[in-house]
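Reminder to self: tokens first, then the designed residues, so the page reads top to bottom the way the pipeline ran.
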């Protein structure tokens, strides 16, 4: 839960930025999220909904070696601890 006011507005603005980034990824054939372990083999690949995209995405996409799909990963906690921004 967040208190009403600036924290909630800042989070809403950030999530809107993430939605825009996700939409841009989808337009260029990216926007995929890697599923962990065997789940990735059991569940057929599909484009994730925006609500399944990362809240704190990395700046860059990468090419998944096995699926050859362009994807974006989440930020590692060490990056957040270093004080770097999630989305440019």
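Designed residues (88 positions):
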């Amino acid at each position: 839960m967040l208190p009403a006011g600036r924290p909630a507005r800042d989070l809403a603005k950030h999530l809107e930025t993430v939605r825009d980034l996700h939409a841009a990824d989808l337009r260029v054939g990216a926007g995929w999220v890697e599923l962990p372990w065997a789940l990735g083999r059991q569940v057929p690949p599909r484009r994730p909904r925006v609500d399944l995209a990362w809240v704190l995405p990395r700046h860059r996409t990468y090419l998944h070696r096995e699926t050859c799909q362009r994807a974006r990963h989440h930020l590692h906690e060490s990056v957040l601890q270093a004080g770097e921004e999630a989305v440019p």
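The radius of gyration is 14 Å.
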